[in-house]
Amino acid sequence: MDKIIVEGGDPLKGEVTISGSKNAALPILSACLLTGGWHTLDNIPKLKDIWTIKEILSNLGVVFEENNQSLKVNTDNLNSHIAPYKLVKTMRASILVLGPLLSRLGKAKISLPGGCAIGARPIDLHLKGLSLMGADINLAHGYVVANADKLRGADIFFDISTVTGTENLMMAAVKADGVTTLHNAAKEPEVIDLANMLKTMGARINGAGTDTVTITGVKELHPVKYTIIPDRIEVGTFLIAAAITKGEITIKGCNENHIEAIMEKLLETGTEIKKEGEVLIVIGHDKIKSVDIKTMQFPGFPTDMQAQFMSLMSIADGWSIIRETIFENRFMHVSELRRMGADIEINGGQALVRGKTNLSGAQVMATDLRASASLVLAGLVAKGRTEISRVYHLDRGYQDLDLKLSLLGSKIWREKQ
Ligand code: EPZ
Asked: Does ligand 1 come within 6 angstroms of the Cβ of 133?
């Protein structure tokens, strides 16, 4: 296992290009299962979760060819319908192959993802929707065993707006008999990107990005060439990296419509963000104002940016309240930030962050993907050396974060644990 070492104190300078969105690439790769032929996907990020979904798809008979930035995907010969525990246990998003497999093969056997560090994260809403579409769903020996001769359109209401639930059912519906309406659907940009890819394949989808999505089943789909959107959470992470180090960086390849809530909150802290043509320029200042946040579904402040924002608030000029409303246990980073001197008090789903002048470097441990990013950000500004262990969490969702930060002037490197 690797660890990351950071010597804090250097303001970041220079420019960084954002990689493709992990949370758009995962459903889009799964959607390739819906039809045979060769797909070409561009801007797929190179990170652990993408490797995992490719392993799961290869297990099903999918063939990949990489040439420079493009990933070619052949789905002609599916020879299995099983996603095994050994792979699914490492990534919950593996459940995204359930809808496409049911549509293409009429059967699927997917290991139940199990919980994860940030919460129980059940899939009951995925399964309820598929049952309403005529699938026969059984849970046995830790697996979801699903069968459906022909999925049929249904009216589905999500008790809770679920991103991958919306994506799974959208994929199940594109070749179902009749019309499917998803009520209280997730509106994240990654849902819209999947819908755009499916429409390019010939699907009929209206309302993606709103809370009511209507899918009219079609007989056939065809393979596509498609480019994935940039990763809005990586953009947010670099915006905070500039703010926390009081640096000035240029961020290339981002879509500011995806990060309005993040930008709004950063502007409130006194951070400067300017748009020049296709790039964003972000300038951090000495005085960082304390700002309250509450995580919400899109277009609200994203839960995937909560930990990173908490690192910034740890050195702000007052007290801020951070409320986490999406996951029940997404404060795992707090105890590690406290080891670096942060003054944070947790009370149920909210954290009170008493900002202070500085943090000090320490040995800390990553617990989940975004928590590890928050520890890197804290290390950029902490006095002295921070050593972050278990960085495999970070590598699941960021492509070369430490390399990109070192190119921006940070003293950051990897060592074998
Ligand atoms: C997606 O997870 C993202 N992952 C997460 O990003 C992100 O944090 C989350 O959406 C919220 O925005 C991918 O897109 C691959 P949900 P997902 O279903 O779809 C409850 C990252 O760091 N729920 O929208 O699993 C659930 O427990 C990751 O990149 C049910 O109760 O999240 C949660 O409280 C972390 N039953 C809430 O809904 C269900 O059937 C929202 O979860 C489904 C969800």
From this structure: no
